[in-house]
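Shall we go through a protein fold together, starting from nothing but its sequence? Please make up or recall a protein chain and show it to me in full. Go ahead whenever you are ready, and we will take it from there.
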Amino acid sequence: MTRLNLHLVSDSTGETLEMIAKAALAQFDDADIRRHFWPMVRSRQHLDRIFGELAAHPGLVLFTLVNPETRARLEEHCRQAGLPAVAALDAVNDALEAQLGQEAQGRPGRQHTMDEAYFARVEAIQFTIAHDDGIGWENWEQADIVLAGVSRSSKTPTSIYLANRGYKVANIPLVVESPPPAALFSLRRPLVVGLTTAPERLVQIRRNRLLSLNESAETSYADSDRVNDELRFARRMFADNGWPVIDVTRRSIEETAAAIIRLYQEHDQSGGDAIMAGPV
């Protein structure tokens, strides 16, 4: 197994750099990566303190530093120490400058400024938390997206992920014995999306959930026949109402959210008119 020290040096929160590194590392198997995370590096003194760690744990240095002096000092140190250093956003910035005909502003953490979009995202998160698991159905018309599905079909984590992207999301569990509020079937503004999954996977997820709660897994909640009935009930509701459906069986939360965002953009561009129903 290949071992690598990966140093992530950023003059802001480092969130962007971490996502870039995570996406790239996903393409490599059997690699033992030890991450060293250095956020908010905005002074020469702070940078100098990091050099000792670079020497003690040599490896690859990825950085996003916009201050020319700080960046030059890091690059010079890496050259002298024989460490490869990569500016993670240079190629993108160069391409944008060429296309836009202007230079990048070079302001650390500019994407995290508390502008209108920031406060809209905070509002979306607050709305989504307040409308989890069928709560607050009276306000569903204010949502951007409503997710419907049986228990343990990834509704809540998907909702929270979408909220962090700025979407107001409500979600509702579909239970055979307890029909959802009538308001669900008369929504005009929100996009309603059905989430489904393979019955075998859902049974396993529910059994693991019961075990984590120190409860017996031999209940109707995790019974195969019961799960199949619930899924058929949900799919019939999705079809009857013409809602698009996403099968989350082999999708990560991020992949599910990306599919929902695409559907929402189509929904938004059509002015809320019906979009293609069925599996996505």
Notes: The chain has two domains: 2-111, 116-279. The beta strands are 2-10, 31-38, 60-64, 85-87, 145-149, 169-173, 191-196, 244-247, 278-279. The first helix runs from residue 15 to 25.
